[in-house]
Structure formats: C-alpha cells, structure tokens
C-alpha cells in the first residue's frame, strides 16, 4: 500500500512539472502565432499594393510613344524656324 501512495505522489509531481513546462512552452508559441498573423495581414496588404506593377509596363510603353511624338514635334518646329 505504501508503494501505491509513493507512485501516486511521483505521478502527481511529474504531472505538475509537465504542466509547468507546457505553460512555459505555450507562451512563446502564442507570441509566435500573434506575430505570424501580423506578418500575414501586412503581407496581404503589400500584395494589394503590388497589383499595379503590370500596368507599369504599359506606362513605360506609352511614355516611349510620347517621347517619340515630342521628338517629331520638336523636329517639325525646327523645320518651321
């Protein structure tokens, strides 16, 4: 019967130690989860800001066309003067 009580006491001590260790591990895990959520939120916001990048190619092409037009305009003015 004494061994039964000793076993119960050891089990109780081990269980308490495991609970304390688990709590110490869970606190950083919760912080990591919070930071990961923030990263996900801001990353999604960043991707929304990058949606216009394909339109930059069209802008570049149109700027080149406009530059050619300005060059032709300047040449025409030179001929007039």
Q: What structural class should be given to the helix and strand makeup?
A: mainly alpha
Would you report the number of β strands? 0
Order of helices and strands: HH
Instruction: Tell me the fraction of residues in β-strands, as a range.
Output: under 5%
What oligomeric state do these chains adopt? single chain
Number of helices: 2
**Residue share in helix:** over 70%
Rounded to the nearest angstrom, the radius of gyration is: 35 Å
Structural domain count: 2
What would you call the shape?
Answer: rod-shaped
How does this model look, in words?
With 81 residues, this protein is mainly alpha-helical. It has two domains: 50 residues; 30 residues. It is 94% helix and 0% strand. It contains two helices and no strands. The longest helix has 48 residues. It starts with a helix and ends with a helix. The model has no long low-confidence stretch (mean pLDDT 89).
């Amino acid at each position: 019967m004494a061994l039964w009580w000793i076993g119960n006491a050891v089990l109780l001590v081990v269980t308490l130690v495991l609970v304390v260790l688990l709590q110490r591990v869970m606190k950083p895990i919760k912080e990591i989860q919070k930071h990961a959520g923030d990263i996900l939120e801001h990353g999604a916001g960043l991707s929304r800001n990058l949606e216009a990048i394909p339109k930059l190619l069209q802008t570049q092409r149109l700027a080149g066309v406009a530059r050619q037009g300005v060059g032709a305009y300047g040449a025409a003015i030179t001929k007039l003067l």
